[in-house]
Amino acid sequence: MKITKARIYKIPSGGISPVVLELETEDGTKGLGEACIAYGAGSTAAAGMVYDILERYVIGGVSAFDGEKVWNRFYDHGFWGKGGGPVIMSGISAIETAMLDLKARLLGVPVHTLLGGKINDSLRAYCNGWYFGCTEDAQLPGAAEKAVADGYKAIKFYPFATILPEGRLLHPSLRSTSDQTVIAKALKRLKEIRSAVGDDVEIMLDLTASLTPDDTIRFCREAAEIDITFIEEPAIPGDTRALADIRREISQPTAVGERLASRYAFRDVLEARAADILQPDIGNTGGVMETRRIAAMAETYGLKVQPHICASAVSTAVGMHLSASLPNFYWQEHFPYWSRIPGHTDFVEAPVEDTIKDGMIPVNDLQGYGVSLRKEVAEQHIWAEMELA
Ligand SMILES: [Mg+2]
């Protein structure tokens, strides 16, 4: 079944700008994918990368069943695929993800069936973004309690971030950590949040590679009395040696991966025994099958895997299908309060977000990823349309 059309969307959604790809086959079947660098700077580049890869490798009657062939042609011959970073790999991620959706829909099965079948019938989700709307530290414990009251058994926080007056978080830079009050303030926040949610709720900390390794180790040692599920991105992405050094020196498990593109970047982390949990982002590491490979590599080293998800409702559904099939699945990242932001979920029909209850994501058996675009909303945000036949 030939792919004949593509539409690339840039969807305004709060502080992020998701890049969503819809591929269409000659019989009108539609499949969705997403290039997941919607936060920070880079979504226009990702949209352009999707366009360029489609123009070169998905043109002239490519079969919807040839996702692996497209991926490998791009990787082997696109030049920037080898050693490629998130912009490059998010482009091929969106295409591979959308082609897998097409394949599943053409076969009339959910994507998790193509991944070997469902191992997990429901997925535990940890709550991120529960701090949105807080404008000062004193509001954090109450916001954390609210997330727990909403059913979440785990919350993630950024202990070093500054809460800006408009409620956004500003992550610190390595160069600011000569101010030693940063660590004291982070510990105070953490203790207050732990005290508010009690001992039964898991707390994860994302350091966003914010401190130098010596300060990271110092912070983690001082935080050791507080039960922490994992420390995320304790070192600069790509500095595997620092990651391994930190892991050896602290008692908490470490997690890494949202800024590592392709199985080749993860190989270094595994060989160096530099982390306990991998967090590949399906939408920028190379797609669903690439993330499945990374998860299998992780399994052989005894690591847990939790797909990093900081994107649109399309990625929530994609992540659900992959996580359902992973024997070493750990937690699903989720931003439950984003669905209240106009634009975040209302451009798709039947968002997974609507089915989440008590912090659990029930895995459905709808065809493909189970989500499709709401045409009247999505068509307002078309970035490019392409004829590929
Ligand atoms: Mg993170």
TrEMBL record:
One Pfam family matching this protein: MR_MLE_C
Top enzyme category: lyase
A GO biological-process term: carbohydrate catabolic process
Cofactor: Mg(2+)
One example GO MF annotation: magnesium ion binding
Keywords noted in UniProt: Lyase, Magnesium, Metal-binding
InterPro entries in alphabetical order: Enolase-like_C_sf, Enolase-like_N, Enolase_C-like, Mandelate_racemase_C, Mandelate_racemase_N_dom, RHMD-like
Keyword Magnesium: yes
Coiled coil: none
Organism superkingdom: Bacteria
EC number: 4.2.1.6
SUPFAM superfamilies found in the cross-reference section: Enolase C-terminal domain-like (SSF51604), Enolase N-terminal domain-like (SSF54826)
Domain Mandelate racemase/muconate lactonizing enzyme C-terminal: 137-253
PANTHER family, sorted: ENOLASE SUPERFAMILY, MANDELATE RACEMASE (PTHR13794), MITOCHONDRIAL ENOLASE SUPERFAMILY MEMBER 1 (PTHR13794:SF58)
Stated name of the protein: Dehydratase
Species annotation: Roseovarius indicus
Record gene name: dgoD_2
